[in-house]
């Protein structure tokens, strides 16, 4: 009888140079049980010069929006954009990528910061970068680091702005408060004497300065409401846009047709103003911007038409 073929045994090879046992090999290949040796790196303390450099750079970050607002204000007031752009809004959009309202928010924010610094003018985060007159920098006044934190303060009176900011800093534990904290504080303050905002877009109002430095030169001007906020309105006057608190506005109660006439007049005046003008022409436009009636006299109409023609901005009826 023929024997069935026998099964071949598998050969097992071992290396004399491999001293790792199967159990140890399995342990080394298991990442869960692997041991990682980390070499400790000693972190040195900042030297005096590094501390000064850090403070200098931190202040640059804090002042970024403030400096931007100051620069934009000068660019607008001096019309340094006029060689390349017709309007300030167009210049900001194409040069910096800013939406229409953002540059105005930056400019309005600088006014609020200047007001807040009056609380403690000699001890602020916005001192000269290398000022060492205040060795304990923790005692410097807490100021905002972006315009969003200041938006709720813009419509308030200067003294109320300072009160609201101080309360917001206290609510934040002595640190820079968030925009939400500032808004909550402002909300509580305004609730004391809340006045409902009944203005409508396109409505014609008169600006009442009431010793508000932010409205210097705008007292008595008529304005077109372009945005209705909770406690303020964004209005357009003869030389630009402003955010004005309700206490600084008075409606002319014009009829809808009269409001449309004033809107057209506002556009015409603004187009002429955006050209490079002489002081006498600016004075004339400012006078037209303080009319207390919804129409121009025959002489005023002729003067404005002449200016439109002279500066190449004649409006086709």
UniProtKB/TrEMBL annotation:
Protein name: Site-specific DNA-cytosine methylase
Regions of compositional bias (Basic residues) in chain numbering: 1-11
Organism the protein comes from: Nostoc flagelliforme FACHB-838
Top-rank taxon, per record: Bacteria
Stretch list, region Disordered: 1-32
Biased composition annotated in UniProt, kind: Low complexity: 12-22
């Amino acid at each position: 009888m023929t024997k069935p073929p026998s099964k071949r045994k598998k050969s097992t090879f071992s290396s004399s140079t491999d001293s790792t046992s199967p159990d140890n090999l399995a342990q080394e290949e298991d990442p869960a049980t692997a041991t990682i040796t980390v070499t400790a790196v000693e972190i040195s303390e900042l030297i005096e010069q590094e501390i000064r450099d850090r403070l200098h750079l931190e202040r640059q970050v804090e002042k970024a929006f403030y400096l931007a607002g100051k620069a934009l204000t000068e660019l607008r007031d001096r019309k340094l954009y006029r060689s390349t752009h017709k309007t300030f809004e167009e210049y900001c959009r194409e040069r910096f990528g800013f939406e229409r309202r953002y540059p105005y928010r930056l400019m309005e924010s600088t006014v609020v910061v200047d007001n807040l610094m009056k609380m403690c003018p000699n001890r602020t985060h916005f001192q000269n970068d290398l000022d060492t007159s205040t060795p304990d920098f923790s005692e410097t006044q807490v100021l905002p680091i972006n315009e969003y934190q200041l938006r709720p303060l813009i419509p308030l009176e200067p003294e109320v702005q300072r009160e609201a900011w101080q309360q917001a800093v206290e609510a934040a534990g002595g640190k820079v408060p968030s925009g939400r904290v500032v808004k909550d504080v402002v909300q509580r303050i305004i609730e004391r004497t809340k006045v409902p905002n009944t203005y409508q877009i396109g409505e014609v109002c008169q600006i009442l300065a009431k010793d508000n430095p932010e409205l210097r030169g705008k007292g008595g001007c008529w304005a077109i409401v372009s945005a209705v906020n909770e406690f303020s309105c964004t209005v357009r006057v003869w030389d630009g846009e402003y955010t004005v608190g309700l206490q600084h506005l008075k409606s002319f109660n014009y009829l809808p047709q009269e409001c449309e006439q004033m809107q057209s007049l506002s556009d015409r005046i603004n187009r002429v103003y955006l050209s490079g003008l002489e002081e006498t022409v600016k004075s004339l436009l400012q006078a037209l911007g303080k009319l207390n009636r919804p129409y121009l006299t025959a002489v005023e109409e002729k003067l404005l038409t002449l200016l439109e023609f002279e500066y190449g901005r004649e409006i086709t009826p």
